[in-house]
Amino acid sequence: MMSKEMEALILKRHKTEKVKKKNQIPYAIIILVIASIISVSLWRNNHSYVVFWITGISFGIVLRYSRFCFAAAFRDPFLVKNTKLMRALLLSLMISTTGFAIIQYGYLKNNSMDYAHIPGMIISVGFHTMIGAFIFGIGMSIAGGCAASVLMRIGEGHVLPWVTLLGFFIGTVLGAKDYSFWYEKIIKNAKIVYFPKYVNLGIVFIVQMIVLIILYKLMIWYQKKSIKR
Amino acid sequence: MKVRDLDCLYEACPIPLIKAIKELRRLNSGDILVVHSDESCVGVAMVEWAEQNNYQVKLVETEVGEWEIYVQKP
Quick one: residue A144, left, alpha or beta (phi over 0 = left, psi -120 to 50 = alpha)? Predict the structure, then answer.
């Protein structure tokens, strides 16, 4: 929707300059060729690297065009009362819950309950998780994006996220260096909670889905409430 | 009717939106705010915010990777 005044202003500002957009298709073709060459050479070395390469590129494309941003998903409900991305995140959690329920059901039917081998990274949760998440949240808000969107911005051609990426490298290296210290002191003592150990996997799945659906409805209600004002 | 330009080039994602909302509060009814931005997310977020709050809005890509967002205060 656009008012007449705005239309006039846009016309006034842009009638003189012809569309000077550069054609970007040649660049796209060059990058596609480079990506194909790399995947062919990866195929010769290790087949699984090709899978990582292609899924990585696909993730990037999907993130770019859907503008899916984890930082915005958690920020927008508070900042501009928009829960669209948060709801998308909840939907993706629902999908992955279903997927992991199927995978873990298949695994648990044939194997014993060994946390280290069950698919889906079953790890301990404790205060350290909360503290880490809080620190990450602060960093994410200042940097304007989480790891995925920082990489996406670099791909879009921004320069500022390179600084964030440097910070990421420093943080990751420091974290890897001191991980054993934190593991011995804190992480080892935290308890692993895996609900299917206590109740049937099916019930766990249904309860988790119900919780996610309630959160989804809550988000819709929150957005409607804040618009009316 | 007044036209106010807001230069938000090189600014990361939520900042242009916050600045624009603050600026719009200061403007009178019928004034037009033009936000200049070079981040793709800003345009989309701005349009979404404007439609949610019943502002007239138009997103124009002036160059590759540069946008102007026109918002009129109702």
Answer: left
